[in-house]
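TA notes, week 10

Several of you asked for a full example with nothing omitted. So below is the full record: structure tokens for the whole chain, then the designed sequence directly under it. When grading your own attempts, check the secondary structure regions first.
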């Protein structure tokens, strides 16, 4: 199983970015994908998640209303659309995956597979 994030970069405050998490060796029949981020000097935190057993993604309070998670099973890819970005969103963003199970949560221990991360910078 391999998860590969892409789409990171530098964007001005108020701007948008879309991150992708491409999965290989991982089917979207029964899965959960979580997005996490780690800012410099801080612990990694959960951003949101999506699963095959729950039609509604879950979001952390800090990104609710600004970030959207969507999946494209034909492409084996999950997207994190980020809008109204703030300097506080600056971090390395990771996707993580697991197969089987019900629903999803943004607990790191829930996931078996991790991507390498992609950097998002929102200058202040």
């Amino acid at each position: 199983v391999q998860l590969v994030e892409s789409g990171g970069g530098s964007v001005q405050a108020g701007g948008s970015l879309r991150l992708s998490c491409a999965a290989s060796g991982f089917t979207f029949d029964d899965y959960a994908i979580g997005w996490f981020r780690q800012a410099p000097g801080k612990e990694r935190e959960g951003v949101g998640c999506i699963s095959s057993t729950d039609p509604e993604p879950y979001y952390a309070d800090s990104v609710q209303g600004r970030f959207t998670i969507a999946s494209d099973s034909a492409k084996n890819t999950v997207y994190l659309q980020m809008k109204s970005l703030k300097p506080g969103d600056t971090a390395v963003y990771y996707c993580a995956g697991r197969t089987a199970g019900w629903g999803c949560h943004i607990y790191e221990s829930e996931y078996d597979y991790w991507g390498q991360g992609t950097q998002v910078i929102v200058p202040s």
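DSSP finds no helices and eleven strands in the chain. Use that as a sanity check on your answer.
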